[in-house]
Task: structure prediction
Amino acid sequence: MRHLTFERTDGEPVAFVPGQFIQFHFQYADGTPTKRSYSIATRSDDPSAGGRVEIAVSYVSGGAATERLAHLAVGETIDASGPYGRFCLQDGDHNGRYLLVATGTGVTPYRAMLPSLAQAIGERGCEVALVYGARNEAELLYGEEFEAFARDVPGFSFHPCFSRVPRTPPRPGDRNGRVQVALADLAPDPARDIAYLCGNPDMVDESFALLQHAGLAVRQIRREKYVSSR
Result:
């Protein structure tokens, strides 16, 4: 994975709502135009961000986006549009808990949401549980940042799930297995929960089924699937 930061060439800030994404426009080697979407990872409470856009890019073998974005040099430009999307926190929410579930770079919109989540916890006393699946500790994107946030913000908990290699030594909240293990342990409750699912399509579908089995209505489950494209 690679963390990238962009700014507009005209120097203006990029206005976005946490949870939205940017589309990058480029060409295949044969000149055919294409585009890829990446969730914005920028935290509004980060004074060093300065109105810039941060994203995370995962490596896809032979991927056109990997080739273009992974080899961008400092100061290079790329065409982009947006922001787009409605995978955002909603003003009318009155739930007692958010269940945020992610795999891979699907965790980036939750990083952008952290200031808004802290505000919701402080203003209406809701809880937030972030369940994040990775194959091993090295692939736990922004893991240290989420752990620090959990220490600083009562009501926020972080649950890393390692599907292949567990962390040694394990830390509080760690799970061995896929995200569905931690999600089931959190006992989804239709009376108080709103869930967000972002990442691998199989994970999103399986977690959606688990949440529906627990009694959550479709309107209580918000989804965004990440598909690795060449």
Observations:
- The longest helix spans residues 108-124.
